[in-house]
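Notebook entry, structure prediction.
Reason for the run: the old model in the group folder had no record of what sequence produced it. Starting over properly, with the input documented here first.
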Amino acid sequence: MKKALVTGAGGFIGSHLVKRLKKEGFWVRGVDLKYPEFSKTGADDFVIGDLRQQQVVRKVVDQPFDEVYQLAADMGGAGYIFTGEHDADVMHNSATINLNMAEQCRLAKVKNIFYSSSACIYPAYNQEDPDNPKCSENSAYPAAPDSEYGWEKLFSERLYLSYSRNYGMNVHITRFHNIFGPEGTWRGGKEKAPAAICRKVAEAKDGGQIEIWGDGLQTRSFLYIDECLEGVLRLMRSDFSGPVNIGSEEMVTINQLVEIVSKVAGKKITIKHIEGPLGVRGRNSDNRLIRQKLGWAPSARLEDGLKITYNWIKSQLSE
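New structure, fully documented this time:
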């Protein structure tokens, strides 16, 4: 039986990935500071541990796993990443985890390691036009991420690629673009835009009003969790290292995102625009490289994923 290790297994993407690997017949060890919040973990072995501590990393990476997925990070939505209040924690915590994981995987002779980077590494200067953002993989340099979160991700990409060159590890790196779906954080300040808007619309009455940061004309693309996992596994089992975008090319404004969720909810909702952290003006996944290297790219409609996510968040509110 093949064995996989998933770090960050208590988080949104990690907990879904564990379940997917179990369906494929893997024995899975999960690691995180906490268990998944919304359902029982699918892992065969789940270690509650802090990957900033070397002794914890040595304990969990104790064998040459067939596949290691490094998703553990200090992260959150715009309300966490872009205020500047958490910059030191974000950089220190995530960089320490990646330094520990890369070295211990080398010592344990792990050959296949996946690292989850982010679209936040792309230069802010290429994302000022909301209608024409540039996020091709080769546009990452000259580097100018819009947040310290992005800077740490960029550093860690280079860390894993260095280990690949120097120690012969097969490294696979993706830059995620706004992954969403059921069992993701939907309140508390770390939630991403789709979950926050689904919650606000679910709580609002028909004809009601919700608050949105900024003018709502900033653009993004959002990728449903199932397609994210498909991309991750295809990359991990390919001979391509990346970095490569995993995201949707269906770009929408935040105002349009509200419209779609309102349609799914069957409500008429008006928007009140307020001051708040925004990030870049425009961002969209460029999927030319993933099509070329993997012969695949995400294709599901945003509305279909939002329907599932909205209904799940609505069910959480009624509990």
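Summary: Residues 182-221+250-284+300-317 form a domain with the UDP-galactose 4-epimerase; domain 1 fold (CATH 3.90.25.10).
The old model has been moved to the deprecated folder.
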